[in-house]
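Form 12-C: Joint structure prediction
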Amino acid sequence: KAGVTQTPRYLIKTRGQQVTLSCSPISGHRSVSWYQQTPGQGLQFLFEYFSETQRNKGNFPGRFSGRQFSNSRSEMNVSTLELGDSALYLCASSPGGGQEQFFGPGTRLTVL
Amino acid sequence: AQSVTQPDIHITVSEGASLELRCNYSYGATPYLFWYVQSPGQGLQLLLKYFSGDTLVQGIKGFEAEFKRSQSSFNLRKPSVHWSDAAEYFCAVAGQAGTALIFGKGTTLSVSS
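Section 2 - Result
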């Protein structure tokens, strides 16, 4: 079974721009979660989607948003980029029935 | 507040020696506990998990972990380390298995020959 895929793998943006990251979960998985990883703050939970509904949300500003489509694929969007948004963004999928999460390789976002 | 502490930022172990990585958690309810490993430039790979039952859990790559409720700990162990085990290791806790994970800051493992 194919793993979690994330596109693109690398992105370079400038301050003030917006960006959209994509995540395709493992086939059959209905839950998708997003995490931000930075050297200073470590791994932090952004939000989780299940059956196209946001089920859980971390402590991030409203500039960070996401959505999930009917095929369980998910996108996250960051508007008005700041230098501090430079990070590795990880997507994880889960069957949704109380099982563990499986992570993708991440998207490395650099904001200049 | 819910939190995970990994007291050791960096550990160096000789190849073939045993390994123990420490993890302490603070969680009000019954926790779901995980260990993940991350190689440079890669995502996270699940090593093992504890949901309930036997407090000694076995994972992939020869790793095991023991859940000790009285000590709020979930330490990771391996009897004999291989050079390929060099990576960053993260302990995580959740209230439910498939929802928001709270991660520790990670422990970087170096393996010397």
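Section 3 - Comments
The mean pLDDT of chain A is 94. The first strand of chain A starts at residue 5 and ends at 7.
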